[in-house]
Design goal:
The complex is a heterodimer of chains A (249) and B (390).
Chain A: E1 2-6, E2 9-11, E3 33-35, H1 37-51, E4 57-64, H2 69-78, E5 82-87, H3 94-108, E6 112-116, H4 127-135, E7 138-149, E8 152-159, E9 162-169, E10 172-176, H5 188-195, E11 199-202, H6 235-244
Helix pairs in contact in A: 2-5, 3-4
Chain B: H1 10-32, H2 43-56, H3 74-84, H4 112-125, E1 129-132, H5 142-145, E2 149-153, E3 156-167, E4 174-180, E5 190-196, E6 202-206, E7 215-226, E8 230-231, H6 237-273, E9 275-276, E10 279-280, H7 285-313, H8 318-344, H9 354-365, H10 372-384
Parallel strand pairs in B: 1-4
Antiparallel strand pairs in B: 2-3, 3-7, 4-5, 5-8, 6-7, 9-10
Helix pairs in contact in B: 1-2, 1-3, 3-6, 3-7, 6-7, 6-8, 7-8, 8-9, 8-10
The chains are: A alpha/beta (249), B alpha+beta (390).
Chain lengths: 249, 390
């Protein structure tokens, strides 16, 4: 089974994100960039499926500027076999990425696309679902467990109030949740091996995809400063404050 | 011609990421359970960390791959040493021992039998090894200072004398000891011996010092060393230890940069939170300048460390560059940690913060591995002798 694993370049999760002074977005100049942590979980799951003999080849894909090669290289050092960079310097919205991935699916014929449930930069939580819709494939989102079950894929999903298990017909899309696995660190021998693995470079136009943005960002701003907490003396006082100050009950 | 652009090799950046995450997610939680001045982790904590480090290819990263290490070049050693020092015991016990302890590289200049009996087992089993150069008569000038004598008698050498400030000697499996076989004061009269275990006539005394990890004083009274445990030829001792000393200064300097960087990050976090006189410390110019000065000096020190590594890779004069890096990095780290203590106030000197320990241990870094003054002397002599110009 061939796997396609899309990985996104995002601001590192350790970096305190700052809004640009003009409110058009977040500051990414001179900021450490890394692979989206949910995508790391996707790469790890793909590598585990390969180690179990379920997967035969893992292709890591990233859409974005040339620097996305770094994230592809990280995926290769974790165990992916080869990479594809869809090079584009401008904004890429989830729909555009889903269309690019659809075109790559047509080219590569994977049986499973496994990707993070969302990226930690814009938290859109959309690409996986859009790709499933465009392809008309089954989808198992927010996966906390993935098992091969005959010619199907059994996916345990984290839903409100518990776990749901779905059986997917292949080919399928899986999006990963936090508890699916703990991604490995790239080891020195694998980092050296990754140097020799190929990364193919394509442009959106080569795939026949129009990536023109359809959304307009009006304004990006910092969340409101959190107010200091208050101690209450009694349940009565608490109920009173919830009702009259916070106005939540 | 290149366009002048340079960066760390991509693979090294990835390995640095791996080391950084390993330190943060694996080593630090284990160390947090250990006492403030701990110099080792309990076996139950250390063994899984060492296993993971071996799998990651970070085991004995200064040792060539043919002997079981990761075989990083000096630049790689500098980059990883900077990360490995970022823990409370990191000034002297990098990564809390998770990456093993590289045996002194002089052992790889020995014969095959010595490499197999001592070098390779040290890497495989994570053995501890000491290097004994300094003596009560001094450490900075061993050519003149070494008085410990080795007499060749039959199939063995008989050693008599004392060694001082020997790190790791207490629990070492073996060590390299430098003794005089030639005339007093003669640079070529020093020979290196492998001291296997605790031979008869060797006594060790712990010397309490400002750092948590105590060095030892060794007394040798008719200690017998078989001829096959002489490393190299008679009189080659200086040559053998020089490679170890000079190359070792690069990761030594990098580790100081790592500690200071970790201290600065703690101080910046604190400055953003702490309020006094109606505003955050981060908003006060006195604190901002301390942080800015620390950052500028650290950047300079790091680049000098990397430059020494590049010089070595290009086959240049590592000795001078390593001295420059060693002095600047250790002195910078001392100043930066001192400022960070100041930013923290009382907490800076409390044994609830790593700063207290780093502050004490950074002080030794200006003395160990050749005091600043000796390195300055060597640099000045090189410059005044007409060498060392770029």
């Amino acid at each position: 089974m061939k796997l396609l694993v899309p990985v996104k370049r995002v601001v590192d999760y350790n970096v305190k994100v700052r809004v640009k002074a003009d409110g058009t977005g977040v500051e990414t100049a001179n900021v450490k960039m890394s692979m989206n942590p949910f995508d790391e979980i996707a790469v790890e799951e793909a590598v585990r499926l390969k180690e179990k003999g379920v997967a035969t080849e893992i292709v890591a894909v990233s859409c974005g500027p040339t620097a996305c090669q770094e994230q592809i290289r990280t995926a290769l050092a974790m165990g992916a076999d080869r990479g594809i960079l869809v090079e584009h310097d401008g904004v890429l919205e989830p729909l555009a990425v889903a269309k690019l991935l659809k075109a790559l699916v047509a080219k590569e014929n994977p049986e499973l696309v496994i990707l993070g449930k969302q990226a930690i930069d814009d938290d859109m939580n959309a690409t996986g679902q859009m790709l499933a819709a465009l392809l008309g494939w089954a989808q198992g989102t927010f996966a906390s467990k993935v098992e091969k079950d005959g010619d199907k894929l059994k996916v345990t999903r984290e839903v409100d109030g518990g776990l749901e298990t779905v059986s997917l017909k292949l080919p399928a899309i899986v999006t990963t949740d936090l508890r699916l696995n703990e991604p490995r660190y790239a080891s020195l021998p694998n980092i050296m091996k990754a140097r020799k693995k190929p990364i193919e470079n394509v442009k959106p136009a080569d795939l026949g995809v129009d990536v023109t943005p359809r959304l307009t960002v009006l304004k990006v701003e910092e969340p409101a400063k959190r107010q200091a907490g208050k101690k209450v003396g009694s349940v009565q006082e608490l109920v009173d404050k919830l009702r009259n100050e916070a106005k939540v009950i | 011609m290149s366009n002048g652009a340079w960066a760390l090799p991509e693979e090294l950046k990835m390995l640095r990421d791996t080391a950084r995450r390993f330190m943060q997610n694996d080593v630090k939680p284990a160390e947090d359970r250990a006492p403030h001045d701990a110099c080792e982790l309990p076996v139950a904590d250390l063994a899984p960390l060492q296993k993971k480090a071996r799998d990651l290819g970070l085991w004995c990263y200064r040792t060539p791959t043919e002997y079981g290490g990761a075989g990083l070049d000096l630049l790689g050693q500098a980059v990883i040493a900077e990360e490995a020092s970022k823990c409370r015991m990191g000034a002297y016990i990098p990564a809390c021992g998770a990456f093993g302890a590289d045996p002194p590289n002089a052992i790889w200049l020995g014969n095959r039998d010595q490499i197999e009996r001592f070098g390779i087992p040290a890497v495989e089993r994570g053995q501890k090894v000491f290097v004994a150069i300094s003596e009560p008569s001094g450490g900075a000038d061993p050519a003149r200072g070494i008085r410990t004598r080795a007499e060749h008698r039959g199939g063995r050498y008989v050693l008599n004398g004392s060694k001082m400030w020997i790190s790791g000697a207490g629990s070492a499996d073996w060590g390299l000891l430098f003794a005089r076989t030639g005339a007093q004061g003669e640079r070529g009269g020093i020979t290196c011996f492998i001291i296997d275990g605790n031979p008869k006539g060797l006594t060790k005394r712990r010397i309490g010092v400002i750092r948590a990890w105590s060095p030892y004083e060794l007394h040798l009274e008719d200690v017998e060393v078989p001829v096959e445990n002489r490393l190299g030829e008679e009189g080659q001792g200086f040559q053998l230890c020089e490679k170890w000393l000079v190359e070792g200064r690069v990761p030594y300097a990098a580790a100081c940069v790592g500690i200071a960087q970790a201290a600065l990050e703690l101080a910046m976090d604190w400055a953003r939170q702490r309020e006094a006189f109606g505003s955050k410390l981060a908003d006060k110019q006195a604190i901002q300048w301390m942080i800015a000065d620390s950052e500028m000096e650290l950047r300079a020190a790091r680049l000098l460390v990397w430059q020494a590594a590049w010089t070595a890779a290009l086959g240049g004069d590592l000795k001078t560059d390593a001295s420059v890096a060693k002095v600047v990095a250790t002195e910078t780290a001392g100043r930066v940690v001192d400022r960070c203590v100041q930013i923290f106030g009382g907490l800076g000197v409390a044994q609830e913060m790593p700063l207290e320990r780093w502050y004490r241990e950074m002080r030794i870094k200006r003395i160990g591995e050749g005091p600043s003054e000796v390195h300055r002397m060597v640099l000045a002599r090189t410059l005044l002798g007409g060498k060392g110009r770029r």
